[in-house]
Amino acid sequence: MHQVKRSEAMPFYEFACPDGHRNERLMSMSAAEREIDCPDCGSRAQRVVSVIGSLPSQPGISAAMDNAARSAHEPAVVNSIPRAGNARPTPVSRNPLHSHLPKP
Ligand SMILES: [Zn+2]
């Protein structure tokens, strides 16, 4: 009994035999064969290079890629430096009795 791990990628591979039959086989990457017997005529069918990766790029994707490329040498600039720490001054007591207290 041949078992395939669930985590293993199972892409479709397309095979073309000399007679022009096309067959898709779902097989694990590690078990992918270069040739199979054509189920239609029995001759050797060669694996065809997948078309995945040559799909035309979609507008949204290319725009996002342009943005990412531009940000490498044209980063969005901030005009002011954000204030560091607490902007409020520390409250000071005006009571003369407090001046005798130890200072932090
Ligand atoms: Zn065939």
From TrEMBL:
InterPro entries: Regulatory_FmdB_Zinc_ribbon. It holds the Pfam family Zn_ribbon_8. Residues 65-104 are annotated as: Disordered. Residues 10-50 form the Putative regulatory protein FmdB zinc ribbon domain. This is Zinc ribbon domain-containing protein. It comes from Corynebacterium tapiri.
